[in-house]
Amino acid sequence: MFLPPNPLHLRSLRLSDLPAVITIEQNSFPTPTKEKSYRYELSENLLAHYQAATIRRANQEEQLLGYAGYWLIADEVHISIIAVDPQWRGRGLGELLLQNILNLAYEHAAALVTLEVRESNQAAQDLYLKYTFEIVGKRRHYYRDIGEDAILMTIKLQSNHLYRHFLDQKQKQLHARLSSAPF
Ligand SMILES: CC(C)(COP(=O)(O)OP(=O)(O)OC[C@H]1O[C@@H](n2cnc3c(N)ncnc32)[C@H](O)[C@@H]1OP(=O)(O)O)[C@@H](O)C(=O)NCCC(=O)NCCS
């Protein structure tokens, strides 16, 4: 697991985080995922892995800043979510959560990391493009709320030997960015 500089921390997402998760969901998505679905993901879905990015300051309660999740299906890591509290965006936390998933994908010896993202979600697409995800297709009307298309993006890990080195470089850069950001 990537170790972010203090006071930031990465850990597994817990059921006790769900009130904060639901608030971030409501502030982030046109159709927020319901608490019941997260309960299932955290308690019953054996394929699911969720992580939390938090801030812990002395004498203060730990605060959830963002979270991410993926399903490990055979040798594929499918990213189901990355979300950062709107008040904490633009400081490298989305990148932290994505880097952490990519590290975990290596630990699982995954061959492929995949995801779907709304066609209109430029911020998320730019995040994935920064990590050299490729656009490999489109699912028409995938998001039923407004019938929006999903863009499919993937990155191949096992057949791309230079990627581990690329990720190590990115981790050093992100560590420096997080160390100098006002947290
Ligand atoms: C997408 C999201 C997770 C990014 O989190 P963040 O902490 O603000 O992102 P970071 O500060 O780590 O930025 C990393 C990269 O993402 C991209 N990015 C982030 N915000 C962006 C924006 N508003 N516009 C364009 N690109 C953006 C950039 O490539 C950025 O790299 P840079 O800082 O070198 O320019 C955040 O905007 C979010 O939670 N959105 C709502 C939920 C969502 O749409 N999740 C993704 C779908 S599952």
Structural commentary:
This protein is of the alpha+beta class and 183 residues long. Helices cover 33% and strands 32% of the residues. It has 5 helices and 7 strands. Strands 1-2-3-4-5-7-6 form a 7-stranded mixed β-sheet, with helices on both faces. Strand 6 and strand 7 form a beta hairpin. Helix 3 runs antiparallel to helix 5. It is globular, with a radius of gyration of 16 Å. The mean pLDDT is 96. It binds coenzyme A. The site of coenzyme A (COA) has 20 residues, from strand 4, helix 3 and helix 4.
Task: Reconstruct the topology from this structure.
Elements: E1 8-12, H1 18-26, H2 35-43, E2 48-55, E3 63-73, E4 76-84, H3 93-107, E5 112-118, H4 122-130, E6 134-143, E7 148-156, H5 163-180
Parallel strand pairs: 4-5
Antiparallel strand pairs: 1-2, 2-3, 3-4, 5-7, 6-7
Order of H and E elements: EHHEEEHEHEEH
Bound molecules: coenzyme A
Question: Could you tell me the mean pLDDT?
Answer: 96
Structural Rg: 16 Å
Largest sheet: 7 strands, mixed
**How widely separated are the two ends?**
20 Å
- Spatial order of strands in the largest sheet: 1-2-3-4-5-7-6
**Which shape, going by the Cα principal axes?**
globular
Low-confidence stretches: none
How many helices does DSSP assign?
Answer: 5
Number of strands: 7
Q: Structural class per helix/strand content?
A: alpha+beta
Strand content: 25-35%
List keywords for this structure.
183 residues; alpha+beta; 5 helices; 7 strands; 32% strand
